[in-house]
What does this fold into?
Amino acid sequence: MMQAMLLKEQKKPLKLCEVPIPRPNAEQVLIRVHACGVCRTDLHVFDGDLTEPKLPLILGHEIVGEIVEVGENVRDLKMGERVGVPWLGFTDGTCRYCQRGMENLCENPLFTGYTMDGGFAEYTVAYQRYCFRLPESYGDVEAAPLLCAGLIGYRTYHLAGEGIENLGIYGFGAAAHIIAQVAKQQGKHIYAFTRPGDKDAQEFALRLGADWAGDSDSMPPILLDAALLFAPVGDLIVHALRATVRGGVVVSGGIHMSDIPSFPYHLLWEERVIRSVANLTRQDGIEFFNLIANNPVKTEVESFPLEHANEALDKLRRGELQGAAVLVI
It folds into this structure.
C-alpha cells in the first residue's frame, strides 16, 4: 500500500488515503515519486474547469522520481534511473495526428493526473515512451516544475515564431519565470505583465531580468513582437493584441481560459495572429532539456509535504506563489 492525496469529487478537498501501489503493464515503469509540482492545470481539474477526469483520481503531472520496476517490454529505461513524467502520458501512435508528427493532438490520448493517476502519491506508473531523463544539474524539487511549466512554456515560446526582439509575458507565475530566463539568455527584451497592483510579482519579474514590469491592463513602453499568455483570463487576449506590432503573434499557453470578449477587428488586422498551445510532444521535451542542460535556468519553488497538497492548491488559486509549488514526497 501507499499514501496518496485522492480527488474523489471535483471542488472537494483532496483526502490523504492509503491505496494499493499500482502495478506497471508491459510498456510501463513503476516510479517511486520524489517530488511533484503543483500546476494550474491541477487547479483546473480540481475546480471542475476540465470536466472529464477519471474519479477517484490522483492529481499531479510534474513528476520526478526513481524507477523501481520495469514492464517486460521496457527496453530504454532501467531500474534506478531518475526520470520525469509530463502531462501527456500516452498516445495511440496510429491516428492521423500521430502519423503527422503532431502527437500532442492525438485523438486517443491519456493525460497524467487527469485520465490516468499522477504524482500526488508515493508511487506512480508511466509509459516508457513518455518518461524523460532529466539533466543531472537539477535536484528533484527544482526539476519538478520543468515537467509542465517548463515544457509548456517552451512550446508556447517556440510557437511565437522567429525574429522576436520584444517579448511580452502575461501572468508571471511558474511557466513565465522559467521561459523568461530562456528568452533572456537568447537576447530578448522581456516585458512582464501581472495582476493589476501586484508589485511583488513585478519585482520578481525584474529580478529575473525583465526589462519592464507592469499591470496586465497597461500598455508596455514599446510595442511587442509577440506575447505569451499564461494567465487563464480571456480579456488578456485583447490587451495583448493592442500591445503587439503589425504581424505580431499572441500565444495562449493555458489549457483553460475564461471567455474572450468581443473586440474591434482593427486589433486583429495587419496580420496579427492568435494561437493556442495544446499539450506537448516528446520532441519538445528533448529540445527543452537539452537547451537547459547547456544554458541552466533557476526554478523558484515553495515546497510542501504531500499531505499539504490542498494548501498548495489554495495558494496557487490566490496568486500567493512566486514561481512554483512542489510537493516533496
Observations:
- The radius of gyration is 19 Å.
